[in-house]
DNA sequence: CGTATGCTTGATCAATTTCAAATATCGTGG
DNA sequence: CCACGATATTTGAAATTGATCAAGCATACG
């Protein structure tokens, strides 16, 4: 469990800026030439308060981002999945600990190299900005979920938004993979584990979802979930909205 | 009450990029040459969903930033005071409505001009980044407050963090100016107005604060408030921490 | 100086947490 | 492949917190 910058910094990496930063204008490009690091379950990528030296791209797996409060409570700020980035929107130090939920493969790149590369190349900057703004928008959605919604609304939101993020192949019925534990979900939604369980059980009883093992839930009535979730997730869930059996409430 | 982009765009402004953007490397500089616009109480600077065309700097006054949910609930995302900026961390459209709490004087500048100017000048970019990252950090603190803290903890946090932000001239006892209504505070903290009142009354009863009119509260026992607020606000409140009568809990 | 609005307080109610067991699932070793 | 133990999840009942409903009170403004 003790680990900060886990894997060796991969001594001599082939990638070179070579004096012409615009060669490396694309973020994915720069990352692609970095070696893939592997982390086991429960290892930390970095700890809250560490100097924010790197930016990470998750190749595969799931991470939880959290802070521990003085009295031991754990607040999960968010989760990150394969294809997503980590460590983008922070200043000098990381504002949270990033820990693996599943085995994770990721690439890292020095933050200084990123910002250095933006000077000449205006190709990179919009990409970075877009991601930072999306993180901001996600944080604001989270604020609304935590500040205004009740337990059932929060869980419905959670299911819907994770269905949108983690692919699910556009199949029907939609299946959501939830690699994290119920306690993770509770700490993310500002509820207790018992409340999360009760809500899931209720949704199941009412035929809205069908849990399949611990880490997979089939969404059987997306329309009802969307209705419960409120009008959040407008943009993100539009593709899911098209999959509803009957038109959602806001379609009038 | 009807108003989106209120004041005339101040037709021909003297300020020119003049082909050498680095001339205008400093954000405050660029803003300083913009005309000051004035808004009355209750007017909107922009509405949620408006195209994010401008960035604003508040010269004086207070704004509330909020979203209205489908069922009419209002979630206040944050407040902005004189000296702070607005409309920085958003992509294509504003993610919230910005409405004046008091009379407000502000300056605006086209977002396209800002980003255009960053291409050549690396003086501007760090300033923008720092502000965006600070917004992000504030959002994450808000997430923790809403997700993990009880009513008293939330109000204590609110008082402490606003004492830090709105000057208070480093005088003792510290006075906090709260231009917003109790309902605003409630919608910001995810509580009801009654709960906010009760908590304030309790703090008063216990001698931790001394309300002075509706919009001013004197913090009499900052140490106790800090203790209640938990270990959040570490960085921001360090200057306040020095003003405590007795050493705070975490000073052991 | 009166009225509208915002604030405060009290009593009751509902939602969520807490405490306490059961039950299910997963990984492992036989 | 199955049994077992550890861990995660689910369920129930009681306690708590905060919301809701309902008045009173204070303040600011015309």
Give an account of the 3D structure.
Helix content of chain A is 35%, strand content 21%. With 252 residues, chain A is of the alpha+beta class. Chain A has 2 domains: 21-121, Jelly Rolls, CATH 2.60.120; 149-251, Winged helix-like DNA-binding domain superfamily/Winged helix DNA-binding domain (Arc Repressor Mutant, subunit A, Orthogonal Bundle), CATH 1.10.10. In chain A, strands 1-8-3-6 form a 4-stranded antiparallel beta sheet. In chain A, helix 4 (151-165) crosses helix 7 (222-229). The first copy, chain A, starts with 26 loop residues before the first helix and ends in an 11-residue tail after the last helix. Residues 1-24, 234-238 and 244-252 of chain A have low confidence and may be disordered. Chains A and B meet through helix 3 and helix 5 of A and helix 3 and helix 5 of B. The structure holds a DNA duplex (30 and 30 nucleotides).
């Amino acid at each position: 469990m003790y680990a900060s910058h886990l894997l060796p910094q991969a001594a001599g990496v082939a990638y070179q800026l070579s004096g012409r930063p615009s060669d490396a204008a694309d973020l994915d490009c720069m990352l692609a030439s970095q070696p893939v690091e592997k982390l086991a379950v429960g290892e930390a990528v970095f700890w809250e308060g560490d100097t924010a030296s790197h930016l990470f791209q998750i190749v595969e797996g799931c991470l939880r981002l959290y802070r521990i409060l003085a009295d031991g409570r754990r607040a999960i700020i968010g989760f990150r999945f394969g294809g997503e980035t980590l460590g983008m929107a922070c200043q000098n130090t990381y504002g949270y600990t990033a820990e693996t939920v599943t085995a994770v493969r990721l690439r890292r790149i020095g933050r200084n190299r990123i910002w250095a590369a933006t000077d000449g190349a205006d190709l990179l900057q919009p990409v970075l900005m877009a991601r930072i703004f999306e993180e901001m928008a996600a944080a604001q959605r989270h604020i609304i979920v935590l500040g205004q919604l009740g337990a059932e609304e929060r869980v419905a939101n959670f299911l819907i938004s994770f269905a949108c993020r983690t692919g699910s192949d556009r199949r029907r019925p939609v299946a959501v993979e939830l690699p994290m534990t119920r306690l993770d979900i509770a700490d993310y939604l500002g509820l207790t584990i018992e409340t999360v369980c009760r809500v899931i059980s209720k949704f199941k009883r009412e035929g809205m979802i069908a849990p399949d093992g611990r880490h997979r839930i089939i969404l059987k009535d997306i329309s009802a979930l969307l209705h419960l979730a409120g009008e959040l997730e407008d943009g993100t869930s539009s593709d899911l909205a098209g999959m509803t059996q009957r038109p959602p409430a806001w379609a009038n």
